[in-house]
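Summary for the steering committee. The consortium agreed at its last meeting that each partner would contribute one worked example illustrating the joint modelling workflow. Our contribution is presented below. We chose a case with several input lines so that the handling of multiple components could be demonstrated. No manual editing was applied between input and output; the record is shown as generated.
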Amino acid sequence: MSALTSQLPPGLPAPVHETDDLSKPFWGGLREQRLCVQRCSHCQNWQFGLEWICHHCRAFDPAWVDAVPRGLIHSWERVWHPSHASLKHHDQPFAHALWQGQVLP
Amino acid sequence: MLKAILAACADAGVDARDIDGFASYSNDRSDPVRLAAALGTHRLRSSTMQWGGGGGGCCAAAANGAAAIHAGMAECVVVYRGLAQGQFGRFGQVGGAAGGDATVSGDMAYQMPYGVLAPPQKFALCVQRTMHEHGIARSALRAIAMASNHHAQANPRAVMHGKPLTEERYDASRSIVEPLKLYDCCMENDDAAAVLLVSAERARGLVRTSQKDPAAYILGAASGADHRYGASPHNAPHYASANCSGVAADLYRMAGLGPSELGVVQSYENFTGGVVMALAEHGFFKPEEANAFLTTGNLLAPDGLLPLNTSGGNLAECYMHGFERVLEAVRQVRGTSTSQARRSDVALVIGGPMVAPASNLLLGTESTL
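What follows is the complete predicted structure of the assembly.
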């Protein structure tokens, strides 16, 4: 379970998949520069967040497919108040964007 | 917590040993089994915890307690919430002084490493999108902050009592997470609160024999989440929402009342932007009308269009994780608020905008039954 640390401010926890391995393909994909999301092979429903079951047709084990890493900014925010010790001396503010993925075949 | 429970018993004229049910939310640390043992109750029957939604469970906890009584599974339920954030961790600080864990998984893996840590950072994204979709102006958020602080000036229990807020101070305050400024965000403090539930019949008897303040009756309650509102991370299909549409419809149906019949509202302010959505979804105005409706004057007791958060709420009375507003709704119905609304025979409480599950509660006088 190696961690993705290179782009993160030191001291913040690194993202890893849960011990049940559900999100392992997602985090593993990122390490290979691929954006992997779930797509049900029965009903073609796209799904993210990740689950063991398709929320549209209830089929188990949705397939993993590569998504195009392109999209629209759905919302954004700019953080001025750090909430973690490791960000106290980090440059403020920093911005977050909530990204709406494009679903391309 | 024990002091709050005993104060509620004294207020109601109930012997604490007769409590046979406990209801809370947000994984309150005070375990009912331990409370029952500490209080020396005759018998523990109902113990319910509302799962998920943090402060959004503040009304659901009361509903769960009432449901136990309605089903005959308990006769006297205490609904409670206590916080000791100093000792057991603050919502607004993550990871502790040492920085916390080296790795994170689950829902927070998508957020925490990038600095989406504490509630303001999680909810500002939702507020921003709502402001964008419906053209919500800064003035609407400011009016909500002003109303809470204004009512706190009349409330000697309020943390912000004696610290009035002006529009100039609001505007000049620092950003916490844009679009949220300092006074858009709730306070954090330690406290404990409790209400005691019994059947309507027993309440009438208690009031008769003890000469106490009249009881407040539960006219309606609901909790829940709209379709996939909780899809993580930030993947609700209707993202710009307080998650109140379903619970509003359920509550009005149960109570047989609508928003035009309500004269005072306590609406959970984790952040002012969530109150805008919660009030719109409870039918007080359309989102497009928010800027016209949400002026400070409209939100003040006694004569505003909709007196809001009349104790000062999470922003200015105390951060009791929303439960302070359940107490304030009881005061409104009893006529004992420090900012009494002109019409307060029924009083609405809305718990937890932008969380799943959310919940709500409608209280009324005996004559509204």
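Chain A touches chain B through 37 residues (CB under 8 Å). The first helix of chain A runs from residue 24 to 31.
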